[in-house]
Amino acid sequence: MSKVIASAAVSLDGFIADTDDAVGPLFDFYNNGPVEVYGTDKGRPFKVSEATAGYINSVWPTVGATVIGRHLFDLTNGWHGVPAVGEHVFVVTHEAPADWPFPDAPFTFVNGVEDAINQAKDFAGDRAVSLTAGNLTGQALAAGLVDEVVLNLVPVVFGTGIPFFGTYAGAQVLLDDPSVIQGTRVTHLHYRVR
Q1: Which SUPFAM superfamilies does UniProt cross-reference here (predicted)?
Q2: What is the count of structural domains for the chain?
């Protein structure tokens, strides 16, 4: 059965972007090392430290599907029809785009985070489902749908912005101690939800 992994680069004060949706230095670690790694788009290499490459290469290939929100879809234009990681993207939205220029891309538009996660798990089979941070992660965590949490912790303080768990309003959730991998300008913290 698939596990659901909520993951993002995050500031020390818990933000995945500033209030203008800019990630600033949060993604610098994707381009600060000598080792090339790839997500689904083989034309877009990332150059990371050896430690980060080892971590990414142990996690990304296990992802079968990704669940994102409509806001991220719009910001990235759905990565021009190529999933960032995994083979299929499930987009949580109340309304599918009418004029997206990649109608045959492996993207499914779903109304509701629980339905999107269930469809992604069915698609992924025994592979993982990646869930983007923000309100979706907060909703999924409150519903008991998140198995693991990954903070790619970057040494920066934003002061304000978009929180990793969005506007989480659920009960307290305990996590196991993390596995910790120290990259260059990033610390990968991988937690299992108890």
Answers
A1: Dihydrofolate reductase-like
A2: 1
